[in-house]
Amino acid sequence: MPDWATMLRRLTQTLRLMVGVPDYEVYVAHRKTQHPGEPIMSYEEFFRERQNSRYGDGDGRINRCC
Amino acid sequence: MRILVGRMGWLGVSLLGATALGVIALGHGERINAMWLVTAAICTYLVAYRLYARFIARRVLGIDPSRPTPAIRHNDGLDYVPTNKWVLFGHHFAAIAGAGPLVGPVLAAQMGYLPGTLWLLVGVVVAGAVQDMTVLFISTRRDGRSLGDIVRSEMGPAAGAVALVGILFIMIILLAVLALVVIKALAASPWGTFTVFATIPTAVAMAVYGRVIRPGRIGEMSVIGLGLLVASLIFGRTVAETPALAALFTFRGETLALMLMGYGFIASVLPIWLLLAPRDYLSTFLKVGTILALAIGIMAVMPDMKMPAVTRFIDGSGPVFTGKLFPFLFITIACGAVSGFHALISSGTTPRMIETEAQIPLIGYGAMLMESFVAVMAMIAAGIIEPGVYFAMNSPPALIGTGVEQAAQAISGWGFAVTPETLTAIAHDVGETSILSRAGGAPTLAVGMAHIFSSVLGGRAMMAFWYHFAILFESLFILTTIDAGTRVARFMIQDLVGNVWPSFRARGTWTGNLAGSALAVAGWGYFLYSGVVDPLGGINTLWPLFGIANQMLASMALILCTVVLFKMKRERYAWITVVPAAWLLVCTATAGLQKIFHSSPAIGFLAHARTYEVAIEAGTVLAPTHSLEQMRQVVFNDYVDAAMAVVFVLVVAAILGYGIGVIRKALAAAHPTAVEADMVTEPRGA
After folding, report:
1. Which of B87, B95, B218 sits opposite A65 (nearest CB)?
2. Of B76, B229, B599, B641, which has the fewest CB atoms closer than 10 Å, so is most exposed?
């Protein structure tokens, strides 16, 4: 019996990562366990930060192909 | 017992693959079903992945699953995140698959489907997937650093600088040729032009929703965007059928080129969330969805290949591109067999998210096999069209004229029977006034896809809709690439100029931003415009240059891989990258030198320039130009194109020279000298 819930979650994660947005819950969990007491970005802040990093900040990295 | 069953299974896959390849290669004279191509491809991929990718991973690279990857060592929840392997596979595939694997095979189909398909299969197994996987491995061992960075640290600063200049030039040619593909599809097509223009307000509407109303809801934004796209596709027919509206959206190629340059400049300066990001969401999801739909469509329809296995144009006299099978087939099909650009992606975001080195074969080798399959599907889509129609769509007006009568006569004369009525009927079916001379891949692919999709859903009545859907889908992701690529080129220019004049480098300043963008657009815009006015259709000139550039980058990446293998003291296995590197060097150098020096004006830039110079001296105007002034322009363009080819050949020669030097030092050293990152876990702040 395939685990539909996990598959659906993976699919959503894949589609979001395709446009440069990793999992927000993983980010929050990471901040809580590795940097306790330090600020955590809200989802909106996180989304903007990721958007800027994919297209805007421009370290000349190429993230798409011909 | 299980091992035995497993072995029998693999034996079965190998036999099936061999049978399918046999049918394709030996079934001359009869039409074969496209499923034989699909079967041959899938079996080849499975066997290669099982045997060769595993061999490279275990024996050659010495992959160490216990070694912490950058994602583990620098985990920050943002750039460096250990990611499920299938999720990362999807991410990596979406990043490498673009217009390239769709356009190249369509152009190469003029030689028949067999040569191109064989190169796609052999090329990906021996060259493309090896390059992607090895670069991914090298970058993963070096904190996910970029190709240029790694060339600098492993081969020295001079080699690094040469590599950066090479990458900038290939960017510029890439953007020009992709823009030309869009223009070939949109010129004199009000339906197509309207739907593509409509993506701008669509993107802005998505941006407002995703920034102000419901921040960061990607799914909701994309559904809204998709709805608007479909609405514009449907309304596009009304636009095309209403003369007053159609006139507003009917442009010549020259006008479209200037508009595209203006657009590229503005888009590169605007905030990214307004246009670039929402369109990237749409184009990414549409791309992946359409590729899946195409695969399902081919499996469901199981069409016959109508193009012959091999045509007489392997002798170099083809109308789509000139030049013999060797070397020109191998630079026409880059993406799908081996694409140097992937070396940039494999050293981009993917190595920062890989959980363990054990997943490198799946993501590096596996995703490239998928891209090769996309290219095989493009070859199928081009091959199921009547050959006469294929040549009508892809031959320049200089060869087939501008009317259906003349075109049908010329093409039938080449041995591909077609009537003027057929050409008119197809144009009518897809909702266009003419399908002649629409080289560049997108329209041919659109006709092929429209054939497939309309036999699954909607029949002939829906063909026009599917055709314009396919045009929209390709234009959308090409425009996104132009937008993002202009930005990247701008940053590269800012950094290069910044070496001399540091204030130019700053990202926030308007001077650097505007001047950098203007330079980037001027670079690709020049080649685009000269392609649009080129009497031979432009694709003829620019696609080989792009192919040479892309394969040059692949040679560079494979030379780097070879250098690293020698520095790791694994020279015993270095043939896995030496063989493809040598083949690509031979192809690139031969093609580059032929494009410069070949005595036929149809192939060599200098010979072409000479023809026009002689005519200018004699005071005669050569068709299809209309004045001596235009002829001088043609001569000038030829010299620029020749200079580009010289640059590519020199870049690759320089990297080869540096590579050999470093390899000799590595051989002399007693210990491994590769510069890998240490294995200590050190989480980065922020």
Report:
1. B95
2. B599
pTM of the model: 0.95
Distance of alpha carbon B307 from alpha carbon B415, whole angstroms? 12
Rounded distance between C-alpha atoms, residue B641 and residue A36, angstroms? 58
Contact A44 B215 (CB under 8 A): yes
Compute the half-sphere exposure of residue B671: CA atoms within 13 Å on the CB side of its CA: 1
| List of chain A residues whose C-beta atoms are within 8 Å of the C-beta of residue B215 | 43-44, 47-48
DSSP B623-668: TT--SHHHHHHHHHHHHHHHHHHHHHHHHHHHHHHHHHHHHHHHHH
d(CA A54, CA A32): 24
Mean of pLDDT values over B543-552 = 93
In the structure, what pLDDT confidence band is assigned to residue B227 with cuts at 50, 70 and 90?
A: very high
Say if A54 is an interface residue toward chain B (CB within 8 Å): yes
ipTM: 0.95
Residue among A15, A21, A31 minimizing CB distance to B77: A31
Contact in structure between B119 and B333 (CB atoms under 8 Å): yes
Angstrom distance (rounded) from CA B465 to CA B462: 5
Q: How many alpha carbons lie under 13 Å from residue B526 in its C-beta half-sphere?
A: 16
Which tops the pLDDT comparison, B63 or B5? Answer: B63
Output the six-digit token pair for B21: 């390849």
Neighbours of B500 (CB within 10 A): 7
Supply B570's token pair.
Answer: 């694994």
Contacts of A30 in chain B (CB under 8 A): 75-77, 81
Worst-scoring range by mean pLDDT, A3-7, A61-65, B227-231, B355-359? A61-65
